[in-house]
Prior knowledge:
By secondary structure, this protein is an all-alpha fold. It has helices at residues 2-63, 72-81, 83-136.
Amino acid sequence: xxxxxxxxxxxxxxxxxxxxxxxxxxxxxxxxxxxxxxxxxxxxxxxxxxxxxxxxxxxxxxxxxxxxxxxxxxxxxxxxxxxxxxxxxxxxxxxxxxxxxxxxxxxxxxxxxxxxxxxxxxxxxxxxxxxxxxxxxx
Length: 138
């Protein structure tokens, strides 16, 4: 009878540890998933922001373009003097603006990725610590 009680006690301890293990992993999965969702959301927002910045830059260059409505005819004579130089300058201005927007976007994306990575790493560290505690108990 004593052996049967010890076996039941051991089985109870194993079941308790299994439940704690499942709870720890479920919590960890939820935290990691939350980090990934936040990162995905930040990435989507950044994509929209970048698209808006690129469009705004293009609109500003077109607004300054000799072909813009209202100033087209007045500027035509100036562009006729050196149309290539004017087009090249505008193209470089547009490229420079786009390069700056891409750089800012990449920096924000990197910050979001680092934040998500840090959160996931903290979760994994917490899991390891908790699992050590669960299985070091008798």
